[in-house]
Design brief:
Helices cover about 40% and strands about 25% of the residues. With about 260 residues, the chain is of the alpha/beta class. The strands form four sheets. A seven-stranded parallel β-sheet has the order 6-5-4-9-12-14-15, sandwiched between helices.
Length: about 260
C-alpha cells in the first residue's frame, strides 16, 4: 500500500470520528499542502467515499454501517448507565418520543419493565424492542427504512410526529461542539427530532461523554434548549462550563467532581 492510499484511508477514519474536516485541518494533520489535501478529497469523492463541503469534506453516508455496528459496543457500559437513569425518569403511562440510535436502543431495553407507555419513534429497532412483551402503544411513521440503523424517513415524517403531544422527548445526538451546539449527521433526522421537541413539555438529552467535542453536519439545537441532560459522568472542560451556563438539570451516573453543579 503506497503512502497516498494510507493517508486517504486514515482521512476516512478521522472523518468517521469527527464527521467534518477542513482543508487546513487535513493538511495540518497529515503534513501535506492544502493542494494535496484537496486532491485527496477529490479522489475519495470520485470513489464515493466522501463529499466535499464548505472548504473541507464529510463522509458521503451520514453513518457508515461498520461505524454504526462499532457504536453498539463503544461505551456500552456508559449507555447502559444512561439507559437506567432515563428509564427511572419515566413513569408508567407516560407519552414519550424516543429517538433513534444505539443509546436510545439501550433506553428502550430499560423501559420494557414499564406499563402502559405511549411511544412515538421513527426507529424500527426501538419499536421492535418495545413491542416485545409489553402493553405499550407504539406509533411509527411510514416511509423508507435507512438500512444502517432502521430509521424510517419520509418527506412527511416530521409532520407525522407533529400530530402527537409528548410529556417527554428523549433525544440522542452525534455530537456537541465547543459552541454548545447539538448536532447530528442527517438533515431529515434533525427535522424529525426538532418536530418532537416542539411538541414536548420537556426535552431530555441522553448522551455519553464521547459525544462532547465530536462534530456533526447539521445543527439541531443548543444545550440551552434542553431541559435535562443525562450522562454517565461530567464531561471534561470546556463542556462542564458550557453545561453550567446552559442552566439545564444534570443527572450523572457517578458523582460530579467537587465544586461542579449537577
Amino acid at each position: 500500500m503506497d503512502k497516498k492510499t494510507r493517508r486517504q484511508q486514515a482521512l476516512i477514519r478521522f472523518l468517521e470520528q469527527y464527521h467534518y474536516m477542513s482543508l487546513e485541518e487535513i493538511a495540518q494533520r497529515f503534513s501535506v499542502t492544502t493542494q494535496t489535501a484537496r486532491r485527496d478529497i477529490q479522489d475519495l469523492e470520485h470513489a464515493g467515499k466522501v463529499r466535499r463541503l464548505h472548504g473541507g469534506a464529510t463522509l458521503s453516508m451520514s453513518v457508515d454501517p461498520l461505524v454504526y455496528r462499532a457504536r453498539r459496543v463503544e461505551n456500552a457500559e456508559a449507555k447502559e448507565i444512561i439507559a437506567r437513569l432515563v428509564a427511572a425518569r419515566i413513569y408508567d403511562g407516560a407519552t414519550i418520543f424516543l429517538d433513534t440510535g444505539t443509546t436510545c436502543e439501550a433506553i428502550a431495553r430499560a423501559l420494557v419493565g414499564h406499563k402502559g407507555l405511549r411511544v412515538v419513534t421513527y426507529s424500527l429497532r426501538v419499536a421492535n424492542i418495545l413491542s416485545e412483551g409489553t402493553d405499550f402503544t407504539i406509533a411509527v411513521p411510514g416511509g423508507f427504512v435507512r438500512q444502517v440503523d432502521a430509521g424510517v424517513f419520509h418527506q412527511e415524517t416530521a409532520e407525522f410526529i407533529r400530530r402527537f403531544k409528548f410529556e417527554l422527548a428523549v433525544i440522542a445526538v452525534s455530537g456537541i461542539d465547543v459552541a454548545g451546539d447539538i448536532c447530528d449527521d442527517d438533515h431529515a433526522e434533525v427535522e424529525a427530532v426538532q418536530a418532537a421537541m416542539q411538541q414536548a413539555e420537556r426535552t431530555l438529552l441522553a448522551v455519553d461523554t464521547s459525544k462532547f467535542g465530536r462534530r456533526a453536519l447539521v445543527r439541531l439545537a443548543s444545550l440551552s434548549d434542553m431541559d435535562e441532560l443525562i450522562c454517565e459522568r461530567m464531561p471534561d472542560p470546556p463542556f462542564d462550563r458550557l453545561l453550567r451556563e446552559a442552566s439545564l438539570a444534570i443527572e450523572l451516573g457517578e458523582p460530579a467532581p467537587a465544586g461542579t453543579a449537577a
